[in-house]
């Protein structure tokens, strides 16, 4: 009887698991196990001795993950292995172990997950932490593996860039050295998409106009155009680039680049990471651009037929009411002048980021009322509401369950 591997799939990790399973499939590892993909927690009676349960998560969902782990541990079923990877585990491991995980994956999951699978098959002693060791495909994992698995029906967007040249204080993406997927690797993916009769082609990149760049702002528009020209040749009804999850930094928006996008993409807007309407905050965040860069990028987008969707974050550590007012005033001002919509997020501490142990600041009732009015006017999208709730639940959970860890926050 094969050992079971249970994949805990959720909307927040749906981009990760198809790639990891693809890595096992390429090496024939999955054939040694019964792979169960579950979008809801298993009932207690469904577990079997020796089950391997895989989780991948970000920091904001830790309270819910912890409840599920405690439920499984309380069953005391022999041989169950609880394994975790993803953005939070890359950022920190101490809390993850204390939550009850047996094995953690740190670094490129494609590498560590293959090592783990080979150890299981070979009957070797399992490590409590699998980290990238520079094995036979180190540095080339983006080209080797694809978000296509026979165990999962959906195909996520194609990751074409991992890592980031910037080190924004609220983000942990720059922990990973920048890698790019080659165009020949992307071509293989396009063919697979066509076989499955998929209609929407999109991409994952933390800074999509820096695809192929050897340094921040060193744009390689020729490579982006080669990629998009190839994508269009497959005649997918929708070809999306420069929108979530392939946003654009404002200081990489150029007339030439946006005109090139207009030739190939089906999206009618571009998502631009603004993050603040105040230059001093942008400097503190180490964003590497200014408010003036944001407005210039919006003007270029509009002049070339795109609406601009602007991402902002409120609730930064030590953020004042005056600072939030400056961001809201900036949004209202450019809304009068350009075709924009602002997507407001609320700051949440992310493990591994420079602000990973910083408290958010929270909006007062009058500020919330104004944001509600802006939403009613069609100017903003209120992602900040659920973000704020996640931040509060996360911090209260830490304070209750892991007070020593919570005491590190300032």
Written overview of the protein:
By secondary structure, this protein is of the alpha/beta class. It has two domains: 3-131, Cobalamin-binding domain (Rossmann fold), CATH 3.40.50.280; 142-406, TIM Barrel (Alpha-Beta Barrel), CATH 3.20.20.70. It has 15 helices and 16 strands. It has helices spanning 17-26, 62-75, 87-91, 94-99, 109-122, 141-144, 183-195, 221-233, 255-264, 279-285, 291-303, 321-337, 365-376, 383-401, 403-406, and strands at residues 3-8, 33-38, 52-56, 81-85, 103-106, 129-131, 158-159, 161-162, 179-180, 200-201, 203-204, 238-239, 269-275, 307-314, 340-346, 380-381. A six-stranded parallel β-sheet has the order 2-1-3-4-5-6. A four-stranded parallel β-sheet has the order 13-14-15-16. Strand 1, helix 1 and strand 2 form a beta-alpha-beta unit. Helix 7 (183-195) packs parallel to helix 8 (221-233) and helix 8 (221-233) runs parallel beside helix 9 (255-264). The longest helix has 19 residues, at 383-401. The N and C termini lie far apart (51 Å).
Quick overview:
Helices cover 39% and strands 16% of the residues. The chain has 15 helices and 16 strands.
């Amino acid at each position: 009887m094969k050992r079971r591997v249970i994949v805990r799939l959720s909307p927040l990790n749906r981009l990760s698991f198809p790639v990891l399973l693809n890595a096992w499939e390429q090496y024939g590892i999955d054939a040694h196990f019964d792979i169960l993909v579950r979008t809801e927690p298993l009932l207690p009676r469904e577990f079997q001795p020796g089950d391997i349960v895989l989780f991948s998560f970000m920091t904001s969902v830790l309270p819910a993950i912890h409840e599920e782990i405690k439920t499984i541990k309380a069953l005391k079923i022999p041989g169950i292995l609880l394994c975790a990877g993803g953005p939070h585990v890359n950022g920190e491991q101490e809390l993850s172990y204390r939550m009850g995980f047996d094995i953690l994956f740190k670094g490129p999951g494609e590498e560590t997950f293959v090592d783990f699978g080979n150890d299981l098959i070979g009957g070797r002693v399992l490590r409590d932490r699998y980290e990238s060791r520079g094995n036979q495909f180190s540095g080339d994992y983006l080209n080797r593996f694809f978000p296509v698995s026979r165990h999962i029906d959906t195909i996520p967007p194609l990751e074409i860039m991992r890592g980031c040249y910037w080190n924004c204080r609220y983000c942990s993406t720059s922990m990973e050295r920048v890698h790019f997927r080659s165009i020949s690797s992307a071509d293989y993916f396009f063919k697979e998409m066509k076989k499955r009769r998929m209609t929407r082609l999109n991409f994952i990149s933390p800074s999509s106009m820096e695809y192929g760049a050897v340094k921040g702002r060193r744009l390689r528009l020729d490579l982006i155009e080669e990629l998009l020209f190839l994508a269009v040749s497959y005649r997918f009804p929708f070809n999306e680039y420069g929108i979530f999850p392939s946003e654009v930094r404002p200081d990489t928006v150029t007339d030439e680049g946006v005109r090139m996008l207009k030739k190939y993409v089906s999206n009618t807007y571009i998502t631009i990471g603004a993050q603040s309407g105040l230059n001093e905050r942008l400097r503190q965040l180490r964003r590497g651009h200014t408010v003036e860069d944001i407005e210039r990028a919006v003007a270029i987008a509009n002049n070339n037929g795109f609406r601009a969707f602007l991402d902002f974050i409120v609730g930064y550590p030590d953020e004042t009411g005056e600072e939030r007012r400056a961001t809201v005033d900036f949004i209202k001002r450019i809304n009068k002048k350009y075709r924009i919509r602002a997507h407001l997020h609320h700051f949440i501490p992310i493990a591994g980021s420079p602000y990973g142990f910083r408290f958010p600041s929270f909006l007062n009732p009058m500020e919330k009322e104004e944001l509600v009015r802006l939403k009613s006017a069609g100017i903003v999208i209120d992602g900040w509401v659920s973000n704020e709730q996640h931040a509060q639940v996360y911090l209260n959970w830490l304070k209750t369950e892991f007070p020593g860890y919570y005491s590190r926050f300032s």
